[in-house]
Design brief:
CATH class: Alpha Beta
CATH architecture: 3-Layer(aba) Sandwich
Family: Belongs to the ThiD family.
Helix content: 25-40%
Structural class: alpha/beta
EC number: 2.7.1.35
Order of helices and strands: EHEEEHEHEHEHHEEEHH
Number of domains: 1
Number of helices: 8
Keywords: ATP-binding, Kinase, Magnesium, Metal-binding, Nucleotide-binding, Transferase
Mean pLDDT: 89
Oligomer: single chain
Strand content: 15-25%
Organism: Streptococcus panodentis
Pfam family, one: Phos_pyr_kin
Distance between the termini: 24 Å
CATH topology: UDP-N-acetylmuramoyl-L-alanine:D-glutamate ligase
Low-confidence stretches: none
């Protein structure tokens, strides 16, 4: 039986709605023991919301500290620059037999176009070594260099990401195409699966991190990739629905 050790390479969200905070909370709900190597800090400054990358040698020391921990799954979140992304890639390459979820966080308003382009090229190198990628629409557009305006465009982008090397893809569409339904699209190179849930009247944001870490959790627990995606969509829906309550959320049966 697999152990219940799971690792996130994620950023610190100063508002605790996403990043490593969302990852660890999700792992705890699933009965897993979460570890984190911190990729960046965040803060609100006079210039706005700022991402502060962890120094490369410090990130390298974090990974070296964890090299002998027998993780059963890995989730990758915000990789803020080429140095951190390159070190994360080297770490993952040595553990390509594990379930690995890549949430390719590319759209940060503090990034310049040149920085986004450079990190995009680095993220594409991860595709052969990860189990599934979970971009939102904006990230899928940046990764594929294709405009996504319709559901057919979304399918074309999923196919393009597969052709770029991703084994499984789920594009988070949200309510962009239908204000009443949150639509996500899964693709495995052969079949499409459209996943939908009602749009909740909520101000909660940052669900993408929770979605990706839930998928990683379910893969560790033995679910198929599509099964993990479906359970995770349900989990995020219930987490938002019950966001003003405390306690362990339960999956519907």
């Amino acid at each position: 039986m697999k152990n219940r050790l799971i690792l996130s390479l994620s950023g610190n969200d100063i508002f605790s709605g996403g990043g490593l905070h969302a990852d660890l909370a999700t792992y705890t709900v699933n009965g897993l023991h979460g570890f984190v190597a911190v990729t960046c800090l965040t803060a609100v400054t006079e210039q706005g919301f700022e991402v502060i990358p962890v120094d490369g040698p410090v990130f390298a020391q974090q990974l070296a500290s964890l090299k002998d921990v027998p993780f059963s799954a890995i989730k990758l979140g915000l990789l803020p620059n080429l140095e951190v992304a390159g070190q994360a890639l080297d770490f993952v390459k040595k553990r390509a037999d594990l379930p690995v979820v890549l949430d390719p966080v590319l759209v940060c308003k503090e990034h310049h176009d040149s920085e986004v382009s450079a990190v995009r090229e680095e993220l594409l190198k991860f595709f052969p070594y990860v189990t599934i990628i979970t971009p939102n629409l904006a990230e899928a557009q940046l990764l594929t260099q294709k405009s996504i305006q319709t559901l057919d465009d979304m399918k074309a982008a999923a196919q393009a990401l597969y052709e770029l090397g991703a084994k499984h893809v789920v594009i988070k569409g949200g309510n962009r195409f239908d204000k009443e339904r949150a639509l996500d699209l899964y693709y495995d190179g052969q079949n499409f699966e459209l996943l939908e849930s009602p749009v909740l009247a909520s101000n909660n944001t940052g669900a993408g991190c929770t979605f990706a870490s839930s998928i990683a959790s379910q893969l560790l627990l033995g679910e198929s990739v599509l099964g993990a995606v479906k359970l995770s969509k349900q989990f995020v829906y219930r987490a938002i629905e019950q966001s003003d309550q405390y306690g362990v959320l339960q999956y519907e049966t």
